[in-house]
Amino acid sequence: MKSLYRNVICAIGGILPMTSSHLMAEGTEKREPLNVLFITIDDMNIWPGEFDGMAITPNIDSLANVATKFTNAHCVVPASNPSRTALFTGLRPETTGQYNNQGVFRDKRNNKTLITLPQYLQGIGYETASAGKVFHHPRGNGKEANPYSDPQSWDIQPKSLVGIKGVKIYQNEKGLGKWHNGEYKGYLGKLGVWGPVPYAKEESDEWKNAQFCVDYLQQDHDKPFFLACGIFAPHAPHIAPQRYFDMYPLDQIKLPETPDDDMNDVPQIAQTNFSTSFMKLIKEKGEWKKAVQGYLACMSFADDVLGSVLTALNNSKYKDNTIVVLLTDNGFQLGHKNRWEKYSLWRMATNVPLIIKYPGQSKGQVCQRAVSFLDIYPTILDMLKVEKPDFLEGHSIVDWLTDPDKPREIPAVITHEKGNVSVVLDNWNYIRYKDGSEELYDRSKDKFEYHNLAGELKYKELKNKLAKFIPVDN
Prior knowledge:
Blueprint: H1 2-11, E1 35-41, H2 58-64, E2 68-74, H3 80-89, H4 93-96, H5 117-123, E3 127-131, H6 186-191, E4 194-197, H7 205-217, E5 225-231, E6 238-241, H8 242-246, H9 276-284, H10 288-314, E7 322-328, E8 333-334, E9 340-341, H11 347-350, E10 351-357, E11 365-367, E12 371-372, H12 376-384, H13 399-402, E13 412-415, E14 421-425, E15 428-432, E16 438-442, H14 460-467
Parallel strand pairs: 1-5, 1-7, 2-11, 2-12, 3-5, 4-6
Antiparallel strand pairs: 2-10, 7-10, 8-9, 13-14, 14-15, 15-16
Helix pairs in contact: 2-10, 7-10
């Protein structure tokens, strides 16, 4: 690891030489240095309309229509803190030790000297700015920035919070959900609520954070910039202004399919988690449609916030020399496999929207190859045509921006808690748990992973091939 840090420190000393990367966007060479608008949305699964989902997301859809849409993109960890840590450090949790939401990644092992993507860009002359939840928390309103926001990654980080007020409307005097009469405790007992609130979108912290980005895009900048906008919705609580709920009448809500025998072939270790009992309560109390409605309403609310930033970019002088990256930190289950929230190695928890637009691109493309958030760091550096540091554990997907059908033998590898790993390659999802039990799904025939094929002898060779990609804890 010492050589890793030494190489990085040397690399960020100044402008780096060009790489041999060949992103063939007409006129791109004349528009350098390029800017980056990086948008991350919290807990949004694969349901945007352009991803064949049921959510009404016109702004995401419009961006996808002029960009490259990755339909088989996956987070590195299906939880916010480790997902974002992996994304911005380019390192797996097996390397950083950041497996869950607890703790600041800088405080683990030798992580204080890790160079995040925005820090790397600072080192080559970029100004970095962020608003909202980009790392695990926003900056906050205190005198000192919240360490979870990784303040050293940002030149500019305005005071900010996240969310929209009104959650107390749906909580009792103890701060627990009224719909379950306070029966459920803990995080989900408090924030697992849904419903409209009597506040305008402009009153939300989401809108205020977006407006910082809108204002930033209207200003003159002496340096190229990396501007990150973090949108908290549709993270719980699932509350939003009434107009977003009106978009989804309850009698038109389609619930996820959950076959009665779905869990019969799932290993014991994965039969339940902390949210299983919460999902059971949702069904028993007749709240399932309302819960799904709340999630969809928040997706549309997030899309509306996003729209203000994209409009500002399109109306700015940076329109033609800015890379746009849109992704969400992890997926979300709404009854799938008896789960609520993320925290599993199944598709609905790990498969996320990823859209990348390069300057000069005007036609949408679809890439179905498996890609990982680990690939974002090297991809952005390739798009900027700067040398990549040698510590990155992902692989650039810049070639798939112009040739989305190009074969790719590198899988997306997802870790959920130490020792539990999923390997996604093309349509296959191979899962191996820390006790050695397995799952294997062919998503070309089984989109929602109802039939575990791991026990069938004919797939032994395939499992062995995929198992070779399972990482070892450092």
